[in-house]
User: What shape does this take?
Amino acid sequence: MAQRTLSIVKPDAVRKGFTGAILAEIDRGGFGIVAIKKLSISKEQAEGFYAVHKERPFFDGLTTFMSSGPLVLLVLEKDNAIADLRKLMGATNPANAEEGTIRKRFAGSIQENAVHGSDAEDTAAFEIGYWFAGYELI
Ligand code: CMP
Assistant: This one.
């Protein structure tokens, strides 16, 4: 059954002009785009999104980075979307990402790693609802 996941083209990738190439990879991966928007977020909005990481040492740097410039938010849909997007993205640290993955090609570091994808059904539901209203998801 079709499943939805939340993805982000992060500020590093947008700044470097990789948005179109990353969207092409997502398209080639067979994902449908349910919703898409480009915006700049505040540090507070980033802190709410990444609240699960608030005790981590990288939390301040991560939320500063995510609020450093425009990003692109996507709701994607396909069978097995959550796991398939994580496979397409590659490992969190691009140094460990497989050849041909988005992070191997476009990410610069473990923090500035080009893309985000939800890691489970419950986090996908939270993350989609955090950035998109119901009327945007028809
Ligand atoms: P993301 O998939 O968006 O989920 C949490 C983010 O935290 C992750 O991608 C990275 O951008 C960042 N992150 C995870 N681990 C580290 C780390 N050790 N140092 C810095 N940033 C990290």
